[in-house]
Amino acid sequence: MNIAVVGTGYVGLVSGACFAEMGADVTCVDVDREKISRLQRGEIPIYEPQLDGIVQRNMREGRLHFTTDLAGCLDAVEIVFSAVGTPPDADGSADLHYVLDVARTVGRHINHYVLVAIKSTVPVGTAGKVRAVIREELDRRGVEVPFDVASNPEFLKEGSAVRDFLSPDRVIVGVDSPRAREWMTRLYRPLMLKSFRVIFTDVTSAEMIKYAANSMLATRISFMNDIANLCEVVGADVNQVRQGIGADSRIGSKFLYPGCGYGGSCFPKDVRALIRTAEQAGCRMRVLEAVEAVNEDQKKLLFDKLSVYFDGYLEGRKVALWGLSFKPETDDMREATSLVTISLLLGAGCNVSVYDPVAMDECRRRLGDRVLYAPDMYEAVRGADALLLLTEWKQFRMPDWTRVRNLMQTPLVLDGRNIYDKAELADHGLVYQGIGI
User: Fold this and answer.
1) Catalytic positions
2) pTM of the model
3) Is residue 352 domain-shared with residue 235, that is, in the same domain?
4) Residue 323's domain spans which residues?
5) Which of 51, 101, 103, 238 is most buried when burial is the number of CB atoms within 10 A of its CB?
6) What is the pLDDT of residues 307-350, one digit of tens each?
7) Which tens digits make up the pLDDT trace of 154-213?
8) Distance between CA atoms of 115 and 149, rounded to whole angstroms?
């Protein structure tokens, strides 16, 4: 099967590479000429475990190609995946102009049946807009070419996107014709030979599933953060609370870990977009409004703890940050707690030293020389008045606490992910504060 994937970000590049890994002939398309040139040289523009090997192998074996010319490859493809960005507008709604640009190109150039499958995260009703744009372009040409539009939302987690794609717990496909269902079945069957876990729905329901799924996960996180903050006030231990409620089979243990706020390219944007979609439909998502508010407050929590510890006197203090990316195994800093924390620290007159295993270049791109970039995790804490753990990278889990204590000016550790043991740090002369414990 020949397919095109438009957009070479996390979703598009991983999807294209993994479809090629399963034997499809894939052309990945992007308007960014520099990015395409790098990909044609085998250079991967994002950090994602396993992805570089899959891309290079499938390029070498002739199943994976890169181009800036979508129109030029449409005669050869059967399915076009739209995986372009849908950045939030100022009001929180998704910006669809990239998605609709893809639709216009398809409508202007297809000469045979093509299935357009939308992988981008888009508001409910977008498939109808894409269908209308394609039909409008065909009418302008005065031709009648059959096509379908499907919704195939992605559920890839950054840091495990390749594994998620090749071994999904389910695939959601929204279709409105038998032909579209047949083609999507053919495409996904090789991924699911032991158990065909494709859930077919109508197109509108598939669009809603994506937003509802991410919003539910974000809700669980914000709920536990609220519970953690209450635990601190009343003297409970949120880790024990989490274990107790997670053992209930109706609840389960996933996404019940409190922390210093969620970030990334999905949860914040999707929660806001669903709130906006509801507003446009005359509804109000009161739970999600609270989810968003809790998360924004939670990103400030470690700064607030630091300020209380030093009675508000932060000017001139050196603060070390371990972790910059919004989660481990990625260099993505979109909506990361680190950005909020750094802004608050700099505003209070602190000197900020940072270290992250892979996100240092991304931080330099965003912040320039406003912070000190340490060569390793221990140099970051040299002379520091406080250490803030923001991202739970594996290499941060078992530090040499004696070395950390000897390097620090003031022995304060603020754990934004609750990965350390308070008693262990106390044994090394360190003051420990977590979240909800």
Assistant:
1) 266
2) 0.89
3) no
4) 299-433
5) 103
6) 999 999 999 999 999 999 999 999 999 999 999 999 999 999 99
7) 998 888 999 999 998 899 999 999 999 999 999 999 887 777 889 999 999 999 999 999
8) 6
- Does residue 251 fall inside a structural domain? no
Spatial contact of 98 and 84, defined as CB atoms under 8 Å apart: yes
How many domains is the chain built from? Answer: 3
Farthest-apart Cα atoms in the chain, separation = 79
- 10 Å Cβ neighbour count for 259? 27
Q: Tell me the residue type at 114.
A: V
Nearest-angstrom CA–CA distance, 390 and 212: 27
Q: Are residues 30 and 83 in the same domain?
A: yes
Residue 111 sits in a domain whose CATH number is 3.40.50.720
Q: Specify whether 280 is located in the same domain as 152.
A: no
Q: Are residues 72 and 42 in the same domain?
A: yes
Whether the Cβ atoms of residue 269 and residue 88 lie closer than 8 Å to each other: yes
* Pair 187, 41 in one domain: yes
Contacts 24+ apart (CB under 8 A), 237-245: 237/436, 237/437, 238/418, 238/435, 238/436, 238/437, 239/418, 239/436, 239/437, 241/436
Closest CA to 129 of 102, 92, 91: 102
- Tokens 């409008």, located at residue: 136
